Amino acid sequence: MALLEVEDLRVAFGGSTAVDGVDFQVDEGQVVGLVGESGCGKSVTSLAIMGLLPRQSKVTARKRHRGGVTVSGRARFEGKDLLTLPRNEMRKRRGQELAMVFQDPLSSLNPVVRIGVQITEVLERHRGLRGEAARKEAAHLLDRVGIPDPTRRLTEYPHQLSGGMRQRVLIAIAVACAPRLLIADEPTTALDVTIQAQILELLKDLVDSEGTALLMITHDLGVVAGLCDEVNVLYSGRVVESAPARDLFARPTHPYTVGLLKSIPRLDLPIHEPLHPIRGSIVDVIRWKDGCAFAPRCDSVTEKCVEGEPALVGTEHAHRCVMAEEIA
Amino acid sequence: MSAETSTPTSTALLEVEDLEVHFPIRSGVIFERTIGAVRAVDGVSLSIGAGQTYGLVGESGCGKTTLGRAVLRLEEPTGGSVHLGDTDVTALRSENLRRFRSRMQMVFQDPLGSLNPRHNVEMLLAEPLRVHRINDRAEQRRLAEETLDAVGLPTSVLERYPHEFSGGQRQRLGIARALMLRPDLIVCDEPVSALDVSIQAQVMNLLDELQGEFGLTYMVIAHDLAVVRHLSDRVGVMYLGKIVEEADSEEIYENPRHPYTKALLSAVPQPDPEVEASRERIILKGDLPSPANPPSGCRFRTRCPWAQDICAEETPVWREVAEGHKVACHFDRFD
Amino acid sequence: MTLAKIEKLDRLVEAGVEARTAEGGSLWHQSLRRMRRSPMAITGAAIVGLFLLIAILGPWIAPHSSTAQEWGDEVFLNRNIFPGPRAENWFGLDHLGRDMFSRMVVGARQTLLVGVVATLIGFAAGAVVGGVAAASGIFGGRWGQRIESVIMRSVDVALAIPMLLLALSIAAMLGPSLTTVMVAVGVAQIPIFARLLRGSMLAQAHSDYVMAAISLGVPKSRIVISHIFPNSLGPVIVQATLVLATAIIEAAALSYLGLGNPDPGSAEWGTMLADAQRFLAGAPQLAIYPAVGIIITALGFTLLGEAMRESLDPRLRREQ
Q1: How far C139 CA sits from the closest chain B CA (Å)?
Q2: Chain C: residue nearest B99 by CA?
Q3: Any chain C CB within 8 A of the CB of B98?
Q4: Which residue of C has its CA nearest to A301?
Q5: Does any domain span residue B102?
Q6: Residues A46, A184: Cα–Cα separation, whole Å
Q7: Which residues of chain B are within 8 Å of residue A224 when distances are taken between CB atoms?
Q8: Which domain holds residue B37?
Q9: For C38, which residue in chain A has the nearest alpha carbon?
Q10: Which of A189, A193, A284 to mutate to test the interface with B (most CBs of B within 10 A)?
């Protein structure tokens, strides 16, 4: 059985739809990628799963947010729908069974609290460790994520650490309770390439040794290729292609995936190979219920593309393109 | 680095010689004292031929942005010289410098932040003309329309404001503004890193086209090795204020000699699981040391997997290991 | 590719583009549009609008004279008889037998005048001080930075003086009059505006578009005037609205202390409040009308100012 099963997840902020029916699943111990560009709904998806979107009741009276955030669909974690879970139960799971690592490690840490306190806090709340035991475990965790001299680091403040170190601390906090699922939202985007390599290595190692499932949210197809077992490509709030990583990169089917792969410069291809950009920009979309949102930018567009909602076709390697057979 | 470094070719447009930018670290509330310096750029020499693209690659904090700005005199160099054509840019003073700026321009990383939010496109594009005494309205309009056309924007956007555009279009605007004065040199500081993946290629192709159309010389500063490789003829790798390796683009990626270049290249994830599975990674330990207090000898030694005793004692010589391929490392092979 | 397909696609894309370009226009337009959707802005604007209307039309809409002691014989100070609201005099009579309602209506203009002029004095002088400090700090080199720090230290000193004390000493120097109140309250606001504008300008000076302007060879003076200054005004204008509210209260306070218009006949809310103090025990309504007037007006400007700040700075709103 899947560890996390997301079905027809929809999130709207007032009138604008951010996530428009996303389906995917994460199996036990699996690394699954959610890939897409800004505005495709990948981050909102993760926030919805974590229950971190403001609930309707809390919404202010401002008209722009009229109706506030509406979330619908299902996100079953071990069979239980996280979207309808009472808040206090969700809070219990968060941190313990589900944990999240964010893009910006500096703003995710409290700047005026020592690293050690921020880690032991989690250990106290979720694992009931106190005093010396908690401190020992915290040092052990820092050591585990590859921070040299962990006992000294415990007494330092976030600003005393480099970006890479901070991200390691956040990962340490996230894995403190040995969660079943770790969600990483662009965890290396703010980091330099050599530091990114360190962090990716660490994540890979954690997944391999602890059996934690990882939901990797990123825009970087290179990161996906190196890390993920399964990949879901998002465009304009929906999954347009979903396949095992090797399959996806070997036989990309949806024109958007194909276009992305053709448009990025690569180190492993001959130099000065011309790039083939996707035309237009992400604002050139049509609504999914009118047709394929990617149609305005697609080179293989035909009239079939704007005849109603395209469905996700296929099981192992699924795609949402009515023209897929003809293009291939 | 010593002065014998660069061999200026006769067609070099930009000639940077031993450039230094040190930022003083001051302390004290009432009586400020200088207690040290951040050596952001610490003796860099390079030359760019007319119509060529020089790629400067390195991680954040290596000084590449400061170097780019110092070349344009947007940051005051504390030593060394910059020549653009026959002009010693570092010697220009106030009004002369201001006038000379029409020959060298910059494209910024953040396309929205670099455009005045209260100016519409017409004002944005006319400003450089006005300050350089092209006051004829019709002429301004003609140049603006011509430039918009060159960067692939319709002339109907003249009345619109920066926030009404998408990221890619904004970067096109930024490029258009830099082009208005038809400069010789454009320094592009991370020209695509703020853009979405599918848009990056559009802007890179545009930069390519414009180079041919307007005979531009580029200095492209980026952290993304693939972007630099794609755009550049020659590439310099920067680490902690110094260039540690420089070669033609093809050569440096095929045949990296400096351990830092090797590590950088090996760290870039490739969008291909097959390649990824077999890729050999050199994972560097630790972080960038402080540029206020760089390590002795070779600056990279604290993170270098092959560091020996000599690396701490002697500064490696900037030497040519193959034609046009220079490197600052004591060793030739790493086993 | 058939023509029919392209038409439909274009239509669909256009529908989306239209929906988005409704959000277009300059930053000011956008702010205005956001404000029209904010209940706070609407309430504030309604109060301020009503106040303005009364201030402008006051003498024409007042049912009676504000100075004539028409009902002087109905007021008995020693017996504490002040006729209250009645059909003819909606707010009753004051201690000299004048129509209270008419005095409130006519007094609005003076009150507004004091608030606006005082704020303008503070704004203009503060903008010059802060602008000069920021400009010399940003582009003046070493000497400029010294000038800046001298100016700003003086501003800090001025800020440390309690506003009422400062206003009082100025009022004492100039002698009691309406002008005194305006100048005193205005001068007291200068340091606030100066600090705010300088801070705002320094923040803008580090933005990329200023760097871009430098790299284009735009002269320094022009960068300050056409790039940095206009982009720094937002918070200062918001502050002006908020200051207008405090200025009205301050002016009332100074009038109350007897530093305002010495002409006992003139109607001004602050002076009215001061006059009412003698009869507070017997006729509190004489104080309540002008006090409530001042409070509501100040509230109106404050609401408007807060709404403006939110709409000018959408980031602030998202964080809330």
Answers
A1: 12
A2: C217
A3: yes
A4: C1
A5: yes
A6: 9
A7: 271
A8: 12-328
A9: A62
A10: A193
Chains that touch A (3 or more CB pairs under 8 A): B, C
* A10-48 pLDDT, tens digit each: 998 877 788 999 999 999 989 999 999 888 899 999 999
Q: Mapping DSSP to helix (H, G, I), strand (E, B) and coil, where does residue A192 land?
A: coil
Nearest one of B19, B3, B1, B4 to B219, comparing CA atoms: B19
Residue B335 maps to a domain: no
Distance CA B284, CA B302 (A): 10
Does the interface ipTM go beyond 0.85? yes
C195: CATH: 1.10.3720.10
Q: Is B66 touching A (CB cutoff 8 A)?
A: no
Q: In angstroms, how far is CA B202 from the centroid of its own chain?
A: 20
Q: Is residue B2 part of a domain?
A: no
pLDDT at C209 over 90: yes
Q: Is C184 on the interface with B (CB under 8 A)?
A: no
Helix (H, G, I), strand (E, B) or coil at B19: strand
The reply to whether C216 touches chain B by the CB within 8 Å rule is yes
Among chain C residues, the shortest Cα distance to A299 is held by: C1
Count of domains observed in chain B: 1
**Is residue C152 a part of any domain in this protein?**
yes
Q: How many CA atoms lie within 13 A of B20 on its CB side?
A: 16
pLDDT in tens, A260-317: 999 988 888 888 778 899 988 877 788 888 889 999 899 888 888 888 889 998 888 9
Number of domains in chain C: 1
Specify if C47 maps to a domain: no
Residue C77 near residue C95, CB atoms below 8 Å: yes
**Residue B1 within a domain:** no
Residue in A197, A225, A266 nearest the CB of B281: A197
pLDDT averaged over consecutive 10-residue blocks of chain A (328 residues)?
Answer: 90 83 92 91 91 60 54 90 88 87 84 91 87 91 89 91 89 90 91 87 90 93 93 94 94 94 87 85 82 89 86 90 80
HSE of A220, CA atoms in CB hemisphere, 13 A? 23
- Establish if C79 belongs to a structural domain: no
Residue C142 domain boundaries = 93-319
Whether pTM > 0.80 for this model: the answer is: yes
State whether residue B106 sits within 8 Å of chain C by CB: yes
How close is the nearest chain B Cα to the Cα of A6, in Å? 25
Rounded CA-CA distance C204/B287 in Å is 32
Arithmetic mean of pLDDT over chain C: 80
Please tell me if residue B117 touches chain C, with a CB cutoff of 8 Å. yes
pLDDT value for C264:
67
Query: Which has the higher per-residue pLDDT, C94 or B106?
Result: B106
Q: What is the dihedral of CA C194, C196, C199, C205, to 10 degrees?
A: -80
Q: Is B147 on the interface with C (CB under 8 A)?
A: no
